[in-house]
Design goal:
276 residues, alpha/beta, seven-stranded parallel sheet
Length: 276
């Protein structure tokens, strides 16, 4: 996809899962990437794998100074920032609402929502004076409907959809596009931990997620990275304020409707009985 060649990006949560796949995909398409993550060992390993087109910086997305540092590093090391990907996330607080710890709730929203806000803020800081740029954030199918994630996670992912629309409205006159991606069930260390209790059980996780997929496919990190790549590219120049759902149809039609397989003759007969 030629529309990203020569661009500079920051990806938070870039050391593993969707973030790592996004970094690899962006670099393979001609980007230079700052890998921003708390996982130092994994981040440095990925930097060595990618080579000179990537640089790692330890980043706690709840700390404004860390986000500002990642953006400033992109500018000083590679050049003007073109793309900000707010990907860092956690499962966070779990359990019934009546038993949810307030401290765990606050900590979850700090990572998921405060981190996204700070990424948007500091990307806008350097993009607005130039009149161009792309800001992308990770929502979830849990940000579109209830019952697919823990309460705090769901609240944060819904908020990211709204924040994306709000910031897109503000920044569109500045030539900055702001979009989100809502992944469905994807084979990542975080999902593996939820499904199996272990972060490194991709085969078991994939089998479990396949059984929940209308297409019979378990999402892979690169499926989400490809969606982010499109939204980051010049090919998506007409797209802003949008949340792109990548979920194998999970939120559209989890199970086929009986009406889809009903023969027309059965429908006519049912109509006659109803009207008589």
């Amino acid at each position: 996809m030629s529309g990203v060649e020569g661009k500079v990006a920051v990806v938070t949560g870039a050391a593993s899962g969707i973030g790592a796949a996004t970094a690899r995909r962006f670099v393979a398409s001609g980007c230079k990437v700052v890998l921003a993550d708390l996982q130092e060992d994994l981040g440095k390993q990925l930097t060595e794998e990618i080579g000179e087109a990537a640089v790692f910086v330890r980043t706690d997305v709840t700390q404004e100074s860390d986000i500002a540092q990642a953006v400033d590093l992109a500018e000083s090391h590679f050049g003007p920032l073109d793309v900000m990907v707010n990907n860092a996330g956690i499962v966070g607080a779990i359990g019934p609402i009546a038993e949810t710890s307030t401290e765990a709730w606050d900590a979850t929203l700090d990572v998921m929502l405060r981190g996204t806000f700070l990424g948007m803020k500091h990307a806008a800081r350097v993009m607005q004076p130039r009149g161009r740029g792309v800001i992308l954030s990770l929502s979830s199918t849990a940000g579109l409907t209830g019952g697919l994630g823990p309460h705090a996670y769901t609240a944060a992912k819904h908020a990211i959809v709204g924040l994306t629309k709000s910031v897109a409205s503000e920044l569109s006159p500045s030539g900055i596009r702001v979009n989100a991606v809502a992944p469905g069930n994807t084979v990542t260390p975080m999902t593996s931990t939820v499904v199996t209790g272990k972060p490194d059980a991709p085969d078991v996780t994939e089998k479990a997620l396949r059984s929940m997929s209308p297409l019979g496919i378990a999402g892979q990190p690169d499926d989400i990275a490809q969606a982010l790549l499109y939204l980051a590219s010049d090919e998506a120049r007409f797209v802003t304020g949008h949340t792109l759902v990548v979920d194998a149809g999970q939120t559209t039609a989890p199970e086929p409707s009986p009406f889809h397989t009903m023969r027309p003759s059965v429908q006519r007969e049912a109509g006659r009985k109803t009207s008589s």
